Automatic annotation (TrEMBL):
Gene3D superfamilies: 1.10.150.530, Aldolase class I (3.20.20.70). HAMAP family: RNA_methyltr_RlmN. S-adenosyl-L-methionine binds at residues 176-177, 208, 231-233, 307. The active site is at residues 106, 350. Residues 112-345 form the Radical SAM core domain. This is Probable dual-specificity RNA methyltransferase RlmN. CDD domains: Radical_SAM. Its cofactor is [4Fe-4S] cluster. Coiled coil: none annotated. One of its GO terms (molecular function) is rRNA binding.
Length: 363
């Protein structure tokens, strides 16, 4: 999986300016110094970008005209065009955003008792090929620049500004495999976590992977307090290979070794995401297998009643079987919860809105 084909390009455009949202504070200070400007201006620029949510360099009034012109020449302030905005009866809002090259991505605002959470996308499409997922329809088009991931949070925060609310947590579980776009994902984490930026606490950020093992070891060594989740979805290697082709490249046994390394290195608990598919992976026997797989680990199992995707054949597990699965795990001493449903009355499944509205991207 480390040597997958290169992504395709949708348009033959002139070289695009770098998003200023892609720069960490120290990188912006370095750029300023290299361009004959005072490094302290970086904090002023961050204040305009992330506190005032300004989208035009020319309106950054405490910067010199010359600096504003330099910034406009070298960078763009990434803006996302809202194509569709769906609002659920439970307050969940799903956005379909259009990027500069015409491709589209999904971002979701979820409202909880403890605050507002934003689920961000890291790629246009996905090449992992999970058999139950709408995000992978049409394959991977391209990686998102770090600034395009940051812009999703800024865009949602601007919407929340109208009601004097704030984004309090971020989950990197939207379209794409975050660890397949590792460097941009890491830059995003460091930018939104910074106190001069959006100041979202590390323990309020969760990143999920389908299991790119070399990157799990690398992430463990980053020494960040970010919450970490594995999309597992099966308790044995045969079933996982059927659901998630990535298991052919990165075997379940090797994945569990990487999980143990992560827990030992960081001391942090790991979450296992387990989607329940009717008649596929939801029997009591599967629950017993799952308990055997994760026993003794510092972990939590998050059971996910799956949303129906028209392009896929899977159906949701009946409620009584979901509760039976949960009870089996609890009886075996496994820390487990059932994810609360959100956005059930809109295109809730990841990638579903894009698949419906942008069919040319997902064929």
């Amino acid at each position: 999986m480390e040597h997958l084909p290169t992504t395709e390009t949708k348009t033959s455009e002139t070289e695009k300016k770098k998003s200023i949202y892609s720069l960490q504070l120290h990188e912006l200070k370095e750029w300023l110094q290299e361009n004959g400007e005072k490094p302290f201006r970086a904090e002023q620029i961050f204040d305009w970008l992330y506190k005032k949510r300004e989208t035009a360099f020319e309106d950054m009034s405490n910067l010199s005209k010359g600096l504003r012109e330099k910034l406009a020449t070298q960078f763009e302030i990434t803006t996302l065009n809202t194509v569709i905005q769906q609002t659920s009866s439970d307050g969940t809002i799903k956005f379909l955003f259009e990027l500069h090259d015409g491709y589209s991505i999904e971002t979701v605002l979820m409202r909880h008792e403890y605050g507002n959470s934003v689920c961000v996308t890291t790629q246009v499409g996905c090449r992992i090929g999970c058999s139950f997922c709408a995000s992978t329809l049409g394959g991977l088009k391209r990686h998102l620049e770090a600034g395009e991931i940051v812009a999703q949070v800024v865009k949602v925060q601007k919407a929340l500004d109208e009601s004097d609310e704030r984004v309090s947590s971020v989950v990197i579980m939207g379209i794409g495999e975050p660890f397949d776009n590792y460097d941009n994902m890491m830059a995003f984490l460091k930018i939104v976590n910074h106190d001069k930026s959006l100041n979202i606490g590390a323990r309020h950020i969760t990143v999920s992977t389908s299991g790119i093992i070399p990157k799990i070891y690398k992430f463990a060594d980053e020494n960040m307090q970010i919450n970490f989740a594995i999309s597992l979805h099966a308790p044995n290697t045969e079933l996982r290979t059927r659901l998630m082709p990535i298991n052919k490249a990165y075997k379940l046994d090797d994945l569990m070794k990487a999980v143990r390394y992560y827990i030992d290195k960081t001391g942090r608990r790991i979450s296992f995401e387990y989607g329940l598919f009717g008649g596929v992976n939801d029997s009591t026997e599967h629950a017993e297998e799952l308990a055997d797989l994760v026993k003794g680990l510092k972990c939590h199992v998050n059971l996910i009643p799956v949303n129906y995707v028209p392009e896929r054949d899977y159906v949701r597990t009946p409620k009584e079987k979901i509760f039976a699965f949960e009870k089996t795990l609890k009886n075996r001493g496994i820390n487990v919860t059932i994810r609360r449903e959100q956005g059930h009355d809109i295109d809730a499944a990841c990638g579903q809105l894009r698949a419906k509205e942008r069919k040319e991207e997902t064929r």
